[in-house]
Structure formats: structure tokens, C-alpha cells
Design goal:
Length: 588
């Protein structure tokens, strides 16, 4: 027999502490009147009406009310108050602060009950703030559903079908986990709700600027299509974020959730891109969004100090999950030990326990392993190259409608976010299924990919450790190999355009530097003192070098004579330059 509702046993809280979905109806507290004789729209309140509101909620301290009047705090600025403002108002009690912030939060019913819980295959059930949901539910963000996370790698690893969309959700979630852990562990840092929300938005939107097939677009296509332009997807992300906010009217929504768009949009962009190029090394603080006292916030989404950030944590876990590769780094453990300390440069940095140094080396080893095994797979790379070649051939004939009816090509869509928001992996199928004779050459390359008629891998070599090939010399390498013809041998004729020479720099994320040398740690005995740990203090089995170059040669001609000639040219070129000799098993 079913018991009455009043007699039912209440649901137990979840063991993992994850939240249950909140009800969609505003609570009684939200529906409560703001106070006697006060306009319902708090944005119209004068400083005196703000004082009346506070008195109605139990704040009767004459000093506090005088400071409200003195600083001319109006109703429109109430939702923007954070910990630093409360300090200036003389509210030192944590209980009083919480009470005041809760009272202010009640002015915006949208704060309550409109977030969402999403079941993510990597992180489990994750709860996203309602403002993040508003950003997700826009055409500019939904575009990420149609951009493969690993580009051409999907043609090698059939499980790598995931997209930038779910990675972005994961980074937004992890950014919130880390910043909230620091906020709860160290209240003295005065991390405000505004700060935490901005960090989550930056994590969510950090990849908005990716183009078709992700890194293939900004790493291969754009450098060849627009050689005079230095453009990376991070720039596209901040441009697309601004377009997303403006075209969806989100500034007013951001204000409803306590943000100040003029300051916080700048802060979010800085979190994504790092310091502006115009800033000099002598500049004490290159950022405008937040003061130097909150320098550690800039290490959460895109850490330019040592590369340890939530972006990597998500793609380690997510890519390994889809590639079928073991992930050896536990980001949850890192968050448990993370705290902020002052470094020897006088700035606040995110630190971890000294005993975790070995785990960090494992993290960078995992990064290197993923690059070797998947991201720089020789077949995946050549498929990316063939897609790039196809896009270059199609570029003059593809038209994408942008703002004010102006038309753009694949290579110029990055100049107009209205046009760029329509550019996804779907351009591959548009070319493949087109009947336009102008696209015949591009269509032929894409058909070859589907039939697995790929450019042939000739071999791989390495230069001497002291003979690193400079970036400005990359373009001449194909010509050098074509000219390296062995004496006295009759070979098929090879031209420069028949060969592709690819230089791959493998490292731990900071070229030839050891990133762990730039990580601050703390000891159990003194958790507020930041220290550096030398590699020699960890293990003698760690790498001596942190960077190496791989050189790969491919042949566009698929006949046996041309491929054999390419092999001989390659061997002669390696010999002439004292490069390592390619192994014979690569030629089977």
C-alpha cells in the first residue's frame, strides 16, 4: 500500500555530492517583496532606496547605510557587488556578507533554478550555470557540434568521433571546479562570484574560433592560404565570443547575473588569449580585466606560465577515452592539492604539493605520448594535408554569405564572424557532393581520401640535436629532397611539387624547456610558501632533453617507380645532411 506524501522517506543525498536538478519555479524567497514602498524594478532605486531595502532585510548599521549613500550605490549596481566592494563598505563578518549577497541575489529570480545538469561520458553529471546555458543555446556555440575535435585523426582512430562541443562543455565544467575549490579553500583570496562565472565562461568559449577539422584549419590551411597573416584559433575565439554576445543580446543577460560587461568581457577574452602582443616584458601587469592581485586566475583556462590548465585536463581525459588510450593523469587529485601562494616574482600562482611533482612529469609524458601516438600520426597528418590541398583548390570558388550580404571564401571567412559561423566540417561534404566542374580537382582529392588512395609515406628521420631546422627553412625542404638524386642511378623524374616534407617539433609544451621548472609547489609544513623543485631532486630517470624534431617525407605520386625514386632521394638527402638513416621496415 502506497504511503501518503507526508510519510514518504526523504531522498538521500548522493554519495558523490553531485547536485540534484533544481526546480524550475522560483522559491518563496525570490517571490518575496523587496520591501515597503519600493519600486519592483530594483535598477531604478536611488541610494536611499537601497538603504531602505537593506533595512528591510535586517541591515540597520548606521555606518553601513551612510557608506551606501556616500558611495552613491544605486539599485542597478547592487548585483555587481563582490567581496572587494563589501570590504570597502566595512562588512567584515562572513555571515553578514553571505546574508547580504543572498538578499541581493533574490532581486534576480533568474539566478534560481535555471541551470542544467548534463550527463557527460567523461566527467559524469556536471551542473552548468544558467548563464552558460544561455551561451550554449546560441547558433555560434552550437556550431562546435559540427567540428571534429581531432580532425583527420578520425580517419585513423574510428572512435575519435567527438567534437569541439563536448570538449568545451568539459573545460567550462573543470574551470568551475578548480576556481571554486580555490575559493572555498582560501577565502582570503577574495575570489568573487563574478570571477568564478567569468572563468567558467572563458573555459566554455575558449575554442569558439576553431575552423573545419580543428587544428588543420589554423595550423595548415590558413598559413598556406594567407601567408601574410598570423592567425590562430584563439583570436577567432575572442572574435566569435564578441559576435555571440552582441548578436544574441547577452550583455543584458550578463548584467542580470551580476557581471559588468564592460570589464568582464575584456577579462574573459584575456583568459582565452593570454597577454596581448602589444604588452612588453618590462610591463609589470599586461592585463586589464583583473588586477595583479588576481594573477592566478589567468592560469586556469590557458596557462602561459607552465601549460598546466583545465583545457589539457579535459582533452587528456576525453581524447584518451575516444582513442582507446590509457590516461595516466588524475586532474581530480591535482584540484584536491591546488592552492595559491606568492612566487619569487611577487605574484600569486596556483601551486600543488611537493609530493605531486612526479605526477606532473607523468602528465607531460602523457601529452607527449598522445602527440606521438595520435595527434601526429603519420596517416592522420597526411589526411589533414590532403584535406588542406583540397580546400586550397576549392577556395576561390566557395562563397559564404557574411554580414551585410558580403561574400567570403573559406580563407577569408575568418574576417567576418557572420560568415565564419557558417564554416564547419560540412564544407568537406559540400565539395565532395558538388557537381561544379570548377571543384573537380578538390573533389578528386576528397574522393581519394574516402577510397584510401593517400599520399605515400616515404620515411622519417631526425636531425642532429644541434642542427635543428629553423621555421623559415621549412618551405625549401621539398626542393632539397627533389635535388638529392643519387649519382649513376636512373630514377623516375621527381619534381618539388611531388614531395611533401613535414617538420614536427615534439616537446613537453614549452619547446626545449622543462615545464615543471616553472611550476610552484608547497610543503605540508608550510603551505603558504611557494618553492621550485629541480629535476635532479625528483629522479635520475627523467629526460635530459625536452624537445626533438621529426622529419617526415611523403610522395604525392602513387606509382611504384616514383615511390622508389622518392625513397632513394630521401636516403641521399639524409646522408648529405648527416640525419639519421630511415629504418627499412618503414618501406614495406
Amino acid at each position: 500500500m502506497q504511503r501518503a506524501d507526508s510519510e514518504r522517506t526523504p531522498k538521500r543525498p548522493r554519495c558523490d555530492g553531485s547536485p540534484r536538478t533544481q526546480p524550475d519555479t522560483p522559491s518563496a524567497a525570490v517571490q518575496e517583496s523587496p520591501g515597503p514602498d519600493l519600486p519592483s524594478n530594483h535598477k531604478s532605486w536611488s541610494p536611499q532606496q537601497v538603504c531602505d531595502f537593506l533595512k528591510h532585510h535586517g541591515f540597520s548599521d548606521p555606518g553601513l547605510l551612510d557608506r551606501i549613500r556616500e558611495k552613491e550605490i544605486t539599485g542597478s549596481s547592487l548585483p555587481c557587488l563582490d567581496e572587494s566592494h563589501l570590504d570597502n563598505l566595512g562588512i567584515s563578518s562572513s555571515w553578514e556578507r553571505k546574508k547580504l549577497l543572498n538578499s541581493i541575489q533574490q532581486l534576480n529570480p533568474t539566478h534560481v533554478g535555471s541551470g542544467k545538469v548534463i550527463n557527460d561520458p567523461v566527467h559524469g553529471h556536471i551542473e552548468l550555470h544558467p548563464l552558460l546555458i544561455r551561451i550554449i543555446d546560441t547558433p555560434q556555440f552550437q556550431r562546435l557540434r559540427y567540428i571534429k575535435q581531432l580532425g583527420g585523426t578520425y580517419y585513423v582512430f574510428p572512435g575519435a568521433s567527438h567534437n569541439r562541443f563536448e570538449h568545451s562543455l568539459g573545460v567550462g565544467h573543470l574551470a568551475g571546479c578548480l576556481v571554486r575549490a580555490l575559493h572555498e579553500r582560501q577565502p582570503e583570496l577574495q575570489i568573487s562570484e563574478r570571477d568564478m562565472l567569468c572563468v567558467q565562461i572563458a573555459g566554455l568559449c575558449h575554442d569558439l574560433g576553431h575552423g573545419p577539422f580543428s587544428h588543420m584549419f589554423d595550423g595548415r590551411f590558413i598559413p598556406r592560404a594567407r601567408q601574410d597573416l598570423k592567425w590562430k584559433h584563439e583570436q577567432g575565439s575572442v572574435d566569435m565570443f564578441e559576435h555571440l554576445v552582441n548578436s544574441n543580446g547577452l550583455k543584458a543577460v550578463m548584467e542580470q547575473y551580476g557581471l559588468i560587461p564592460e570589464e568582464d568581457i575584456c577579462f574573459i577574452k584575456e583568459l582565452i588569449t593570454g597577454p596581448p602582443e602589444s604588452s612588453t616584458k618590462n610591463s609589470s601587469w599586461p592585463y586589464k580585466g583583473r588586477p595583479i592581485e588576481k594573477s592566478f586566475l589567468y592560469e586556469i583556462v590557458a596557462n602561459k606560465e607552465n601549460g598546466i590548465d583545465v583545457d589539457k585536463w579535459d582533452y587528456f581525459a576525453r581524447d584518451c577515452h575516444h582513442l582507446g588510450i590509457q590516461n595516466n593523469f588524475d586532474h581530480k587529485r591535482y584540484i584536491k592539492f591546488a592552492r595559491v601562494c606568492k612566487g619569487d616574482d611577487g605574484m600569486l600562482h596556483i601551486c600543488t604539493r611537493d609530493k605531486e611533482v612526479g605526477n606532473l612529469y607523468d602528465m607531460f609524458h602523457t601529452r607527449n605520448y598522445l602527440y606521438r601516438r595520435a595527434y601526429q600520426h603519420k596517416v592522420g597528418n597526411i589526411i589533414d594535408t590532403m584535406i588542406t590541398d583540397a580546400f586550397l583548390k576549392a577556395d576561390p570558388y566557395i562563397e559564404i554569405l557574411g554580414a551585410e550580404g558580403k561574400k567570403y571564401h573559406i580563407s577569408t571567412a575568418i574576417d567576418d564572424m557572420e560568415a565564419y559561423s557558417k564554416l564547419t566540417d560540412n564544407i568537406f561534404l559540400e565539395i565532395l557532393y558538388s557537381t561544379d566542374p570548377k571543384l573537380d580537382a578538390a573533389r578528386g582529392l576528397l574522393k581519394n581520401i574516402e577510397r584510401r588512395c593517400l599520399y605515400k609515406f616515404v620515411g622519417q628521420t631526425q636531425p642532429d640535436v644541434n642542427a635543428k631546422i629553423k621555421k623559415e627553412d621549412y618551405t625549401s625542404l621539398s626542393e632539397q629532397v627533389a635535388k638529392a638524386k643519387p649519382d649513376g642511378m636512373f630514377l623516375a623524374e621527381l619534381k618539388t611539387e611531388d614531395l611533401i616534407v613535414e617538420v614536427i617539433n615534439m616537446d613537453y609544451g614549452m619547446e626545449d624547456k622543462n615545464p615543471v621548472d616553472h611550476v610552484y609547489f608547497y610543503c605540508k609544513s608550510d603551505p603558504n610558501k611557494a618553492i621550485l623543485i629541480n629535476k635532479s631532486q625528483v629522479s635520475q630517470l627523467l629526460p635530459e632533453r625536452f624537445e626533438e624534431q621529426l622529419i617526415r617525407v611523403y610522395c604525392k605520386k602513387l606509382d611504384k617507380e616514383s615511390f622508389s625514386a622518392a625513397q632513394q632521394h630521401f636516403v641521399k638527402w639524409c646522408s648529405d645532411n648527416n640525419f639519421s638513416k630511415p629504418q627499412k621496415e618503414n618501406w614495406k
